[in-house]
Amino acid sequence: MKSVDEAVLNGADWTDVNTWRKEQRARIRAERLALPPAQRRELGARILGHAEAGFPELAGAVVGFYWPFRGEVDVLPLLKRHGAGGGRAVLPVVVQRNAPVEWWQWTPDTKMAPGIWNIPVPAERRPLEPVALLVPLLGFDAAGYRLGNGGGYYDRTLATLQPRPLTLGIGYELGRLETIHPQSHDIPLDAVVTETGVHWPPATREGVELSSPVCYADEAASSLPEYFGYLSRAETLAVLDALLDEAACAWRRALGIADEVQRALPESVALLRELARGLATLRHLLAHVGGAAHAAAQVPAQAVTEPAAALKPMLQRTTQRLQEALPRIRDEALHAGLQDLLVLHERAGAHCDALLARLG
Questions:
Q1: Among candidates 257, 244, 260, which has minimal Cα distance to 352?
Q2: pLDDT, tens digit, for every residue of 122-174?
Q3: From the CB of residue 212, how many other CB atoms can be counted at a distance below 10 Å?
Q4: What is the CATH number of the domain that holds 114?
Q5: Number of separate domains in the chain
Q6: 130, 136, 135, 158: which is closest to 61 by C-alpha?
Q7: Is 189 found in the same domain as 49?
Q8: CA torsion 159→352→348→290, rounded to 10°?
Q9: Helices 266-288 & 233-260, crossing angle to 10 degrees?
Q10: What pTM did the predictor assign?
């Protein structure tokens, strides 16, 4: 009889995959709980440090956290710092089994009550839509797929949120797997943060095929891309840096607008979600081409209070820059990522228009 591992690797059905996942959950959870408390605290501090350094713009946003459970990375210190720094924190609450969770506001003064599995949740229902989520995980793979506790609440919730929040998996390196054998209902994370840093899925997109130019042209384009009209690596990095600067400025102004309307209008939440994913996409693409975000884009982004109309031309400039750069990008994965970014900014522009109309 084949082992579960052999069956999964040979393309088994969902029953075999589910059995294998249960075994992996039990194994990883046991290893996680076996970590000495001092080591767990030290690893947790490193993980939270990477999350804060990698996504400084989230300091002023509505971010979904989780209450640590059964050895999960303790995010409570970050939860408290986030609120003290002017951000808003929300926690997941299961209001109905096998249904999407709701996100209820939390502060250090919030009265808590036992929820599902006796995990503490806010006692008072004050729902607020998050811009980004810190998602606990047991296991994960390089493609960004997550092995959770098996309840399916996060996948059900993400499937209902449009646009999707930025999703950052939080876990230990001991949970790294070659693959979780994702199924059609699994939704990949935008990034995974462990004690070793921020890990991005490969900068590729399903359905993107490599072009097939004449071999000699391909070789020449690789060594001297500008000769064929493509951007050189230095020019590509300059474009990505400029886009990152613009995205950071747009984010600061969007936060100011969200504060102006108390983040109550759906359009403001949708706008911030698109811009948050745009910033993450740019950092991902910079990592893909071997670059790094410069210091100006790494400082914590403070909200800038300006007339709401000031944001629209910024989004238009970014859209124009992307449209000009795309025909000159040779790298297939980078081209696909920038094309996705263009779609994000076009949607952000539409949300901005709707928000301006609501604000009059």
A1: 257
A2: 999 999 989 999 999 999 999 999 998 877 788 888 888 888 999 999 999 99
A3: 7
A4: 3.40.50.10420
A5: 2
A6: 130
A7: yes
A8: -130
A9: 160
A10: 0.85
